[in-house]
Amino acid sequence: MKRLILLLLVAVAALLGACQSFDELENLEDADYDADYAVPLLNTELSLKEALENFQDLAVISIDPDGLIHFTYSGDVLTQNSDTIFKKINESLSGVPIPINSKRMGLPLELPEGFDFDRLVFKSGEFIFGFQHKHPEPVEFTLTMPQITKDGVPLSFSASLPAYSGSGNLPTYTNLFAPFMLDGYEVLPDPVTDSVYVEYELIRESGQPDTALAAITFRDLSFSYMEGFLGVQRHEGGRDTIIIDFFDNWVTGDIYFADPTVTFNIENSFGIPTESDVKVFKVLTVRGETLELMSPYVESGIAFPYPSINEVGVIKEKKFVFNKENSNIDQILGAGPVAIDYDVDAVTNPDSNVNIRGFITDSSYYKVRVDVDLPLYGRSVNFLAQDTFQLNFEDFQQMYKAEFKLVAINSLPLDVSIQGYFLDQDDLVLDSLFQESMRVIEGAPTDAEGNASGTSEDVTYADFPEERFDKVRSAQNLAIVASFSTVNNGEVSVKILESQAVQIKLGAIFGVRD
Asked: Which of 35, 55, 268, 385 could form a disulfide with 366 if both were Cys (CB 3.0 to 4.6 A apart)?
């Protein structure tokens, strides 16, 4: 059975579908008929919440404190962690031998454009160095990196080499096969030059300083912390779609949600000013329209909350809601949405303010989840939905006429018109259930706030004398089409609540020949 989208049709059609085989209905109680061949088909009360639980769709169904039913559709817009940023630093240093061509040399750090870091902490990594000399005396070699420290002590190495004989290979020292582990070391650039230096000293046995052929390599680096101005960086969110299946069985008509919202749920543990850049946010409708979200916050961006330097490890959260007060969300979601097409990026340090010093850690991330909320508080005019049910009259050849009776007691603030079409095996229409589409369930009365304030009862008959019944005897399916409108011809918005229900009694009187 296909899913029914409008809730009252769920209640009616789902229960009709349970009665497809008439020989299973003989033991039902509380029939309203006295005729010998009256068959009670249904006598039940079904709440909307119970009806919804029988369906598996893409929405999360929730009830707010006032009992109002909400459909929520969600999608991840953007998820970003620190790996991308640290990876750029790793790539500028890792695995590439750096020749040391002077006794004090700044490291050729190729940071991402605009980066200016104040502190960098190694999580892991290896440091390799080596040197050669061609002096006729033994030498002592010391290599120091004063800006790379642990517990205040600079990274430093010393080694000795014998004199060079004047021929053959130069004396060489390297820790290639026993690299030094950088875990826990931190980098603090020189406060004047903003550089990280490597320095060496070579002393001959005679005490004379001299030069060496030296090189260093960083390998397999990872970082746990970085602090400073971390540049203006755009993080691509990627284009995606949220499918809204509320209108899967839509045929025609209008429905308007009085107070829909789209919420950006933001989590952020990056200590960097960041804001959204909504590149695309469009609603696709059941009529094939494409409607764009319009709001000042689409133009200016949504600022993410972020922890300060003193709040490392803190996750900041924020909910930003697009509503009818700050956008056209009620118009574009009130037009029968079937999907939301979106592409949202995030931009760090959007104001390029280098005086704001931020941070990232190896566990930093930010995430934005989009929730589309459609509360069942709105109005509709001739909103149509349909579903199809199997029939099997041919097994009951003794039946030659029928009269159907439907009694409905409605606490929902919706008027419903129902028509049925008997279909043959090729889905061709043999006849309709009623002579014309007619209201069988009147909406419950409502107050000024759209709350149902009572109940309504309707009784509807459909007569099938012999000639008409013969036309539908070969029917294989019954297509039910329902049209829904709120009170006052759809001019008033109403609220659909969890506690509201429809009591339905459905029966038939069959004329039977021996």
From this structure: 268
**Are the beta carbons of 399 and 393 closer than 8 angstroms?**
yes
Cα–Cα nearest to 425, from 464, 466, 390: 390
Q: What distances in angstroms separate CA 120 from CA 183, 433, 456, one per listed residue?
A: 12, 77, 71
Phi, psi dihedrals of residue 378, rounded to the nearest 5°: -175, -160
Can you state the percent helix, strand and coil of the chain, rounding each to 5? 10, 50, 40
Q: What is the pLDDT of residues 451-460, one digit of tens each?
A: 778 888 888 8
For residues 10 and 18, the answer to whether their CB atoms sit within 8 Å is no
- In this prediction, residue 198 has a pLDDT band, given cuts at 50, 70 and 90, of very high
Closest CA relative to residue 296, chosen from 267, 276, 316, 273: 276
CA distance 263 to 80: 19
Triad 443, 448, 450: Cα angle to 5°: 45
- Contact present, 60 and 72 (Cβ < 8 Å): yes
Reference 244, options 59, 48, 76; nearest CA is 59
- Residue 382 has a pLDDT of 64
pLDDT in tens, 392-445: 777 667 788 888 787 777 787 777 777 788 899 999 999 988 887 655 677 778
Q: What is the pLDDT of residue 253?
A: 60
- Alpha-carbon span 320 to 359, nearest angstrom: 24
- The total of other beta-carbon atoms located within 10 Å of residue 269's CB is 22
> Which token pair is 299?
């133009």
Bridging pattern class, strands 337-348 and 274-285: antiparallel
Question: CB within 8 A of 178, min separation 6: which ones?
Answer: none
Residue 69 tokens, joined:
């039913």
SS (H, E, C) 342-408: EEEEEEECCCCCCCCCEEEECCCEEEEEEEEEEECEEEEECEEEEEEEECCHHHCCCEEEEEEEEEE
Extended strands (E) in 396-496: 399-410, 414-423, 429-432, 438-441, 456-464, 477-486, 494-495
What's the gap between Cα 183 and its chain centre? 37
Q: Which residues are bridge partners to 3 per DSSP?
A: none
- Give the amino acid at 510: F
C-beta of residue 212 within 8 angstroms of C-beta of residue 132: yes
Round to whole Å and give the CA distance between 441 and 416: 5
Find, among 57, 53, 82, 63, the residue nearest to 2 by Cα. 57
Contact partners, residue 96, CB within 8 Å, separation at least 6: 217
Specify the CATH class of 70-79+236-376 in words.
mainly beta
